[in-house]
Amino acid sequence: MSMLPRKRTWKGALAILCGVCAAAGVAATTSPGASAKVQVDHHLCYTAGGKFRPPATGAVRLIDQFSPNGFVPIIRPALVVHCNPVTKIIRLPAGQKVYKPTNPRAHLACLPISLPPGTTVPTPKVTVGNQFGQATVYLGQPNLLCLPSWKGLTGPPNVKPSTPPGLSHFTCYPVTDTSNGSFKAPGTVLLKDEFSPKPVRVAISTSPQELCLPTTKIVQTGAGPKTYPMVDPATDLLCFGGPKTPIKPKVWDENQFGTSVVHIRATKWLCLPSTSTTAPGHLYWVDYGTSGTVNEMPIGGGSVTSLATGQKHAVSLAVDNQNVYWTNYAASGPAVPGGTVSRVPLGGGSPTIIAGQQNWPGSVAVDDTNVYWGDTGAGLSPGSVDEMPLSVAPPTTLASGQAYPVSVAVDATHVYWVNSGDGTVNEAPIGGGSVTTLATGQVSPDGLAVDGTSVYWVNYGDPNAGDGTVNKVPLGGGSVTTLASGGYPVAIAVDGTHVYWADQGVNPGTGLVRAVPLGGGTVTDLATLQDDPTSLAVDGTNVYWVDYNAGTVNAVPSGGGIVSTLASGETNPIAVAVGP
Hints:
It is built from one helix and 46 strands. It is mainly β. The protein folds into two domains: 10-29 and 39-278, no CATH class; 282-579, Neuraminidase (6 Propeller), CATH 2.120.10.30. The strands form nine sheets. Strands 1, 2, 3, 4, 7, 8, 9, 10, 11, 14, 15, 16, 17 and 18 form a 14-stranded antiparallel β-sheet that branches. A hairpin with a 6-residue loop joins strand 28 and strand 29. The longest helix has 14 residues, at 10-23.
C-alpha cells in the first residue's frame, strides 16, 4: 500500500533543519546582487530540448511533501521544459494588479524522471489554492525534476555557483483529476517575460496540468552526501496550460547538472505560486457475512461510514483515487456462479456491480487503468486471474487453469498471484501474455505483496505444526529467500524498509503482528495477544489490521509502540486497505 504523508506542517520543521544544514556549509550558495528576500515567482514554461549530465541512477534522493523519507528517481538527461520568471498582470474593472518577479535571474530547467519498475510514491488527494481559486486534485506519479538554473540569452551564463539562490528544486506530478472546486482567472491575464517585448494577453485553461512541490535534493558524491535544501517549503507551483506567447528559439541553461544549449519550442504552462494541504487519508475495510458492509473512517480516527451494505460474503478490497473495489463470494455458496466484483465512489454513492456471475472471486487489486482479481473457482471450474478496464468492459482472463489463486498484487508491468492449491507463485504481463512461475513447492501460500525488487508472500504451512514462513523472490524469478519462519502467517504488506505480516497464532488470543527488514534479520513483534488478525496494510507511518474474531480495526506505529483500536463492534472484518 502507498504511504500517505502528513499535512504540510512537516515542511516548517524540515525548513528549520535545512537551515541548520546551510549554516553548517552544506550546499549554501550566494550570488552578487542577489536579494536576501525573495518569494516564489510566477513562471512561464516552455517545451524545450537540451541535454544535461545528471548523476548516475541511485545517486540522487528527493524529499518533498509526499515523501518525507525521500525516494530515488531515474533521471533522464534530456531537458523537456524550461521556465522563465514572468510578470503577470491582472486587468480588473477597477484597475490592474501587477505581480513582478522578485528573483528574475532564477529559472527552472526540468528533466524527466521516473521510478524504478514496480515502485510508486504516495500521491494523495491534495487541496490546492492560489489567485485563481481552490480545488481538490488527484495526482499521478512524479514525472519531472526542475532544477534552479541560470539562463543566458546569447551564450552560456558562466555564473558561479551553478545554482541561483532563492529558488528551490521542484518535483512535479501530473494532475489527473480536479474536483470539489474550480480555478478561474479573476480578470484578463497578460504575461511578459524575457522572450516578449511587451505584455501579451493570454487565455488560461481552468484545469491545472501539473503540481510542482519544493524539494530537498541529496546527491551522493565521493566526499559524501551533499544536500540542497528547500528555500521556501510552503509554496508550490500549480501549472495551467493555454498561454500563447512569443519564444526565443535558442538560449543557454546552467545548473548543477551542467550547461546546455536550449531549443525553445512552444509555450506550455503558466505556473502560479500556490499552497496545498494533503487531504486526510482513510482506512477502508469489509465486514464478512451475508449482510456484509464496506466501511471507511479517517486514518486519525473518527466516525465509521458504511459505503455499501447488504453485501454477500465480501472478502477483499482495493482502493484507487476515485473508488473502493471489493469482491463478494457467491451469494449462496459455491453452488452456482454468483460472485461479484463491485465498486463505490470514495466518500459514498451508489454501489455498482462491475463484474457478475463470477465463480468464487477472492483477492482484488487495482492500478491506474484496470481492476484485477483472482477467481478461485471453488470446484465449479479451475481458477483464473482476470482483468477489467476501469472504464468497465467485459473481463479478460489473464491466466486460466489456476489452482485456487488466493492473493493478487500488481505493479507497473505485471500481475502477481499465489496459488494455494498447487503451492506456486506466478506472474503474467498486464494485458495478457505467458504465465511465469516464480516459485514452486510452497506450503499453503497466502498473502502476497510486491515492491520494486521482489515479490513477497507468506506460507501458512501445516495447520498443526506452526511452521509457516515469510518469503521473497526477485521480480522476474530467481532464488527464494526465507525472511522469517514459524507461526501461522496469513497476510503481508511491505514499505520501503520492512516486511509486515499477520500471524493468526495457534489459538485465539495468540495472534501477532510482526515485522522484519526487507533483507532479513531480527523479527519484531509489533502487536501481541490478538484474537484473529486477518489482513493488514501500511502507510509508512503505521501498520493497520483487522481482527476477524474481535471485530476490531487496529493500528500500531510501524517502528513499534502503543497499539490503538480505531474501530470496534465490527462483524467479522476480513480485509483492510489504506487510501485517500
